[in-house]
Design the sequence.
């Protein structure tokens, strides 16, 4: 879509230096390769639910990096959103930890009730 839009707008696709294209390629490949590999590795050792919920912490990590590396100021709404996100991750993590115990308890009750 962007390629068509650039062509219609008369923009050149090759107006940047080769180093910029190399950096863009690195940005496209690096996070994808490292990120997906890390998630697949984590699923071997952690539940899929936990890994999925943990991914929601990505915006917090990128915000911290922006503050530290780019001197970006934090707005009150961003801080509030981060706190809500961390609270949600915490609640989901605690619920995930309690779930196996609840499932085992239900299985026990079913074993007693079943003839």
Sequence:
């Amino acid at each position: 879509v962007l390629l068509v839009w650039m062509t219609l707008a008369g923009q050149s696709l090759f107006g940047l230096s080769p180093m910029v294209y190399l950096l863009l390629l690195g940005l496209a490949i690096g996070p994808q390769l490292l990120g997906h590999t890390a998630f697949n590795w984590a699923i071997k050792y952690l539940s899929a639910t936990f890994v999925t919920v943990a991914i929601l912490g990505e915006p917090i990590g990128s915000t911290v990096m922006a503050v530290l590396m780019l001197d970006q100021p934090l707005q009150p709404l961003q801080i509030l959103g981060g706190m809500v996100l961390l609270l949600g991750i915490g609640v989901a993590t605690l619920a995930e930890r309690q779930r196996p115990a609840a499932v085992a308890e239900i299985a026990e009750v079913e074993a007693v009730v079943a003839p």
